[in-house]
């Protein structure tokens, strides 16, 4: 719908496709906050697809910088950009990082080989980098950004405690 308004009426539109974003204030229903909340409560959590499920992940601040760049650049109007840090990581690796940060047992992680894993889709951000000069910043140190996110959730228990999750 948005794209058709751009084509028909010249409405300045830019479409951004993002990698899996994570960071503070994220819905507890999403992967990383779900793992964090379960680990904080010492509850087991399933990893669908076992150890092979990959994600293309990026810290939210890097996506925000892409949005700001597009908003202030009329050359971006009418374009479609993929926004990705190019970091491909297994879900089990993300869980390992979170469990290590929280000093929790890896036994909390249940690798479910039988559950359907999501097909992996990695994005290529070459176009936004070349045309607009966008650069990955914080996502380059995923461990630190996951640690920052874990600490944020630890300090903001009201954000997630008591919220129903679908495992």
UniProtKB/TrEMBL annotation:
<comment type="similarity">
    <text>Belongs to the NAD(P)-dependent epimerase/dehydratase family.</text>
</comment>
<protein>
    <submittedName>
        <fullName>GDP-mannose 4,6-dehydratase</fullName>
        <ecNumber>4.2.1.47</ecNumber>
    </submittedName>
</protein>
<dbReference type="GO" id="GO:0008446">
    <property type="term" value="F:GDP-mannose 4,6-dehydratase activity"/>
</dbReference>
<dbReference type="InterPro" id="IPR036291">
    <property type="entry name" value="NAD(P)-bd_dom_sf"/>
</dbReference>
<dbReference type="Pfam" id="PF01370">
    <property type="entry name" value="Epimerase"/>
</dbReference>
<feature type="domain" description="NAD-dependent epimerase/dehydratase">
    <location>
        <begin position="2"/>
        <end position="83"/>
    </location>
</feature>
<keyword id="KW-0456">Lyase</keyword>
<dbReference type="InterPro" id="IPR001509">
    <property type="entry name" value="Epimerase_deHydtase"/>
</dbReference>
């Amino acid at each position: 719908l948005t794209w058709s308004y751009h084509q028909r009426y010249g409405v300045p539109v830019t479409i951004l496709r993002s990698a899996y974003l994570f960071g503070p204030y994220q819905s507890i229903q999403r992967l990383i906050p779900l793992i964090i909340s379960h680990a904080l409560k010492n509850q087991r959590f399933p990893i669908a697809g076992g150890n092979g499920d990959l994600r293309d992940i990026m810290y939210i601040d890097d996506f925000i910088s892409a949005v700001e760049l597009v908003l202030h650049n009329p050359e971006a109007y009418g374009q479609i950009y993929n926004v990705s840090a190019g970091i491909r990581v297994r879900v089990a690796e993300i869980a390992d990082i979170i469990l290590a940060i929280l000093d929790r047992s890896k036994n909390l992680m249940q690798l479910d080989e039988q559950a359907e894993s999501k097909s992996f889709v990695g994005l290529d951000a070459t176009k936004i980098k070349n045309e607009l000069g966008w650069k990955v910043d914080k996502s380059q140190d995923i461990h630190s950004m996951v640690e920052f996110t874990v600490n944020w959730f630890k300090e903001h228990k009201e954000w997630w405690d008591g919220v129903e999750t679908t495992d």
